[in-house]
Amino acid sequence: MADLILFFGSNADTMIATKALKDAGITAKMIPKPANVASASNLCLSIDTGAEAQAKTALSGAGVSLGGVVK
Amino acid sequence: MRTSLRVRLLGTIVGVIVFFFLVTVVASRVVLQHDLTQLGQTQVTNGGGAFAGYWDSRKDQIRLLVAQDAVSDALRKSLQANNVGALTDQLANVARTSGLSFLTVVDANGRVVARANGAQAGSLKSNPLIQRALTGETVSTAALLDQSVLAGEGLAPQAQAEIRGSDGKPAVEHIDRGLAIVAAAPISDQNERTIGAIYGGVLLNHYYDLVDQATAALGGASAILEGDAIVSSTIQQPDGTRTVDQQVGPAADVVKSGTAYTGTDTEGGTRYLVHIDPILDDQQHVVGARWYGTPLANLTAIINHTTTTVILWGVIAAIVALAFGIVVVNVLSATLDQRSKQVRRAAKELGVVIVGSEVSGDHVAMTKAAVERAGRLIDEMAASSPSPKITELKSVNAELESDVTVIDTLSQEMSSRMKQAADRVAELNDVAGALTQLVTGDPG
Question: Do B413 and A30 count as a contact with CB atoms less than 8 A apart?
């Protein structure tokens, strides 16, 4: 776990994404934004690498735009 | 000074009711005035027509009476025998029973043989009606009888009068002629030769049967005018006497132009809506006029009564509407006031939540500072006496510091959102306060 970092355009999007992933049954841990990631948000989400496709589907269904993925 | 919404709403309702009420009353009165005046004019025109019908009926009656007398055997025999005494008695009896003012028999030369009113001699040879009767024609018409004819029949005093002006000015005109309905018919012997003529009629000056009959049947008031002067009428003066021997202003034009007049006229101190139409003789010359009118006060009374009724019911309707309006406004005001107070209470409670959020944020910041301080202490311990436990403790503290950073970020985000919410709530609070003041006039 914690192999994949999802980041978003704002802290609000990050919070909404946390709820969307939780509702979709995907375990996500909110962590401070790594220094090498360029984003307006101070937070990002860490998920298991195998859940990437499921997470993207859940985020798309919740209308949250994904800022990027760092592996 | 600011007035409350309740007062403004009620003021608006009262204003609308009063405006509507005034417009209704004024419009009703104007329409009534116009329509009833038109109706009144139609009625007096119809009444004038009916009065003319009575006139024509009387004229036909006189023609029939004279024509019947002309074929009377008794009159013919007395004329043939030149029995003046018997003829005079017969004429007097007929005139009295028939209601004629005069009845005269002339011979074939137009010389007066006998009169119902006495034995005055004379000649009616120049009388156009006698001339026509002596040619075998039976005629009847309205006519102006001159003084010599009236004097011969003993009727001059009945016709003579000093006429007052329409404005009451005394003796503006002297009348010595008389307006009459007359008829003449030839008297023939057994061989159908004309041996004379009979001439009779009713002098209308100061004769009231016709106008009384018309008024009794039609209502209102009626009058007969010789020229433009009333010579017989049922128009009452304030003292209860008849209006006679007085000029009628609008009648002058009727007599002059020969066209009827429908409009207003004041007689005996009373304003009438009248119809005046000309009286024509057999030569189509205007010899007088028929006046028929109804008091304008009748129409005015209807208009005033209707207006009063509209006002009365309008006031009742306005009071009911106002009472209903007061209830509705009170209910609306109370509901608005209640809702705005609810908003203010909610805003106050939300203020407590915001304060709690700020306190919570401060506490998170202090926790973050404590975790960072613990990290620095662990770093110092690892530098002075490294051990696996301290390394593990450092890892746990790093994870804890990461979590606290996330919590702090979330806390700041929520604090920012809360400030925005607080601003909105403050606006809502202002709106609610303004609503309360608007409704009650009390700033709350």
Answer: no
- How many residues in chain A? 71
Closest C-alpha among A35, A32, A43 to residue A8: A43
Q: Which residue has the tokens 């009444």?
A: B47
ipTM value, please give it: 0.76
Identify the residue among B399, B400, B413 best suited for mutation to test binding to A, counting A beta carbons within 10 A and taking the highest: B413
Token pair listed for A23: 């509702």
Q: Which of B402, B406, B413 has the CB atom closest to A12's CB atom?
A: B413
> A4-70: which CATH topology?
Alpha-Beta Plaits (3.30.70)
Q: Partners of A30 in the beta sheet?
A: A45
Three-class DSSP category at B21: helix
What is the C-alpha to C-alpha distance for residues B237 and B229, in angstroms, rounded to an integer? 16
pTM of the model: 0.67
Are β-strands B221-226 and B286-295 bridged in parallel, bridged antiparallel, or unpaired? antiparallel
- In angstroms, what separates the C-alpha of B396 from chain A's closest C-alpha? 14
Spell out the domain ranges in chain A: 4-70
| Tens digits of pLDDT across chain B (444 residues) | 566 777 888 888 889 988 998 998 899 899 988 998 899 999 999 999 999 999 999 999 999 999 999 999 999 999 999 899 999 999 999 999 999 999 999 999 999 999 998 867 788 989 999 999 999 999 999 999 998 889 888 899 999 999 999 887 887 889 999 999 999 999 998 888 999 999 999 999 999 999 999 999 999 999 999 999 999 999 999 899 999 999 999 999 999 999 999 999 999 889 999 999 999 999 999 999 999 999 999 888 988 898 899 899 989 998 998 899 889 888 888 888 888 888 878 777 776 777 777 777 778 888 889 999 999 999 999 899 889 999 999 999 998 988 988 888 888 888 888 888 878 878 888 888 887 777 777 765
